[in-house]
Design a protein that fits this description.
Number of helices: 9
Shape: globular
Protein name: Protease PrsW
Order of helices and strands: HHHHHHHHH
Strand content: under 5%
Largest sheet: none
Number of domains: 1
Distance between the termini: 51 Å
EC number: 3.4.-.-
GO biological process, one term: proteolysis
Helix content: over 70%
Structural class: mainly alpha
Pfam families: PrsW-protease (PF13367)
Keywords: Cell membrane, Hydrolase, Membrane, Protease, Transmembrane, Transmembrane helix
Length: 231
């Protein structure tokens, strides 16, 4: 019974957030099997990321700034971006700007869910710490995914230098925000909560705006309106 409770508390935040982002797709919902596949990609990259991070710590040392910006944020966001670009970016199902947000959030939540499961399993965490992890690390990964996917959605439907510009932003901005998040946790051992909470509020506020703007740029928006008028 305890094992079931630990697993359920670890899985619930990621799956709940994934459902939320899936339902936020207003005009042309993605095939559920595609969203699940991308979520599973996030699950599968956990162990390569852990190996890379372990090697970098042995090579670079255990410095909090280096760990925050490069070992943690750098490796995790680059691997997620790499999978998004090479597997999802040119996929036929990526046919509206919001799809970038959904798929980037899915891969991020796949990663965050396994990370949460490992934490719960090895620490045997109680409800309080797991609830805090749902509000902070899992939610944080979701917001980094929203930022990445928003700019990938821009890049998908532009050409030339603007495409390269938005692709660069889709990697650099989530890396920056993730690095800032980790720096706060690693450098402010006793007062981190006073900085993390405003940061998360800012990320969610910005993320909701990005979701709305991405949906408003959907090519299916006017088709759906015409269907509603005709019915």
């Amino acid at each position: 019974m305890l094992v079931f409770s630990v697993i359920a508390s670890a899985l619930a935040p990621g799956l709940a957030l994934l459902t939320y982002f899936y339902l936020k797709d207003r005009y042309d919902q993605e095939p559920l099997h595609m969203v699940i596949k991308v979520f599973m990609l996030g699950v599968l990259i956990v162990f390569p990321i852990m190996i890379l991070q372990r090697g970098m710590i042995l090579w670079l040392g255990d410095h909090p700034v280096v760990n925050s910006l490069f070992v943690s944020a750098g490796v995790e966001e680059f691997l997620k971006w790499f999978m998004m670009y090479h597997i999802i970016f040119k996929h036929k199902e990526f046919d509206e700007p919001y799809d970038g947000i959904l798929y980037a959030a899915a891969i991020s939540l796949g990663f965050a869910t396994v990370e949460n499961l490992l934490y719960a399993w090895y620490s045997q965490a109680a409800f309080g710490p797991m609830f805090l992890r749902a509000l902070l690390p899992v939610s944080g990964h979701a917001m980094f995914g929203v930022i990445m996917g928003y700019y990938m959605g821009h890049a998908r439907f532009t050409e030339g230098k603007r495409r390269r510009f938005f692709l660069a932003l889709s990697l650099l901005l989530p890396w920056m925000w993730h690095g800032l998040y980790d720096l706060i946790l690693n450098l402010l051992a006793h007062s981190w909560i006073w900085f993390i909470v405003p940061l998360m509020v800012l990320l969610w506020y910005g993320g909701m705006g990005k979701i709305s703007r991405a949906n408003n740029r959907s090519p299916f928006r006017f088709i759906k309106r015409e269907e509603e008028v005709n019915t």
